[in-house]
Design goal:
Blueprint: E1 5-12, E2 16-17, H1 28-40, E3 53-57, H2 69-76, E4 84-88, H3 94-107, E5 113-121, H4 122-125, H5 136-140, H6 142-145, H7 151-161, H8 166-185, E6 196-199, E7 205-208, H9 219-223, E8 247-257, H10 258-264, E9 270-279, H11 288-300, E10 309-312, H12 317-327, H13 340-343, H14 350-364, E11 369-376, E12 380-388
Parallel strand pairs: 3-4, 3-5, 10-11
Antiparallel strand pairs: 1-8, 2-8, 5-8, 6-7, 9-12, 11-12
Helix pairs in contact: 1-2, 3-14, 7-12
Amino acid sequence: MDRTPVIVAIGRSAVQRSKKQAFATTHPIEICNQVLRGVLAKVPQLDPNDIEDLVLGCASHVNQCSQNMARLVVQRAELPNTVCGQTINRFCSSGLQAMATCMNAIQAGQGDVYIAGGVESMSLCYGPYPREFQDDWLAERDDEIGGYMPMGITAENVAKKYNISRVEMEELALRSHQLAAKARDEGKLAPSIIPVKVINPQGEEVVVDTDGGILNTSMEKMAKMKTCFVPEEEGGKITAALSSQTSDAAAFAVIMTMDKANELGIKPLAKMLGFATAGLDGRYMGLGPIYAVPKAMKRAGLTIDQMDEIELNEAFASQAIACIRDLHLNMDITNPYGGAMALGHPMGATGIFLTCKMLDYLRDNDKKYGLVTMCIGGGMGAAGVFERLN
């Protein structure tokens, strides 16, 4: 009997820039509906009645993403009423956490088939957290704890702590856009994308099947940009170009036991060998992968030198550079298809989005091991270690 949890199908929408592109006025449940149907179509052998639960990650549970969105997605996708739904939130790692949660449930014998998902509509559901909603004790100590600290300020803190220059950050941002453009033009980003038909903000029916954040930028263009969070004359370095793009997207993965996959004649795509989260000082939240990756590696029984591909979410250029330095990441295999400064960071969906990119790269290059890692708002990091099976 083999209850090893395996990913048997995975897919994502294209990532769209929030408030500016095709998903800006689309209900996130509708994006989820179309992507989920597309992913399930990859495993027609699966009887939807066998699905135990849908676990959906989402970082901003407000407006159109409020209530138990996972159950609403189950209903919108017209899955059987027996399929349950739970919505979870670990901010930027919500999608990766959803996959780990499904795998944990399988290993605990709570079910044989699960769907993990992630979604974010930063167009409709994202904004500053009002002071009146904040706990007074935490708010008064924000400079010491960082619980409510704007992410851009934490990025400035990391840049200062690690003495990272603006030019160094702009070089990484340029690399991100250039690699993403190359991957797009060569069709490397396309295999995992599920086309989504929507009415765009201009009232036109369009099919969204291409990531929309990749720019034809340059060092000269970035050098002219103003800082976003701290004035340049006060030492600020972080500009919009050095930040992940706010984005809209959805992504899903079907996870089941190895026995179930064999029973249905489905070739598993991958399995998770190790997963970890780690906490740290919230004022430097971008350093989270530095603490999470070694834990995940130890649990997987592997070293970072054994990784064939690494997806490090580029929340900000400063934190990405700090993590690259401390973890001694091989840049030849780190974000080879571009990162979040070019492709976006749809927070709840990012974990599964990055897993799609990782698996596509491993398949393209006939490689075996991959790492997905990101920092998390509030002072955490997460990491998942995967083995490609097919």
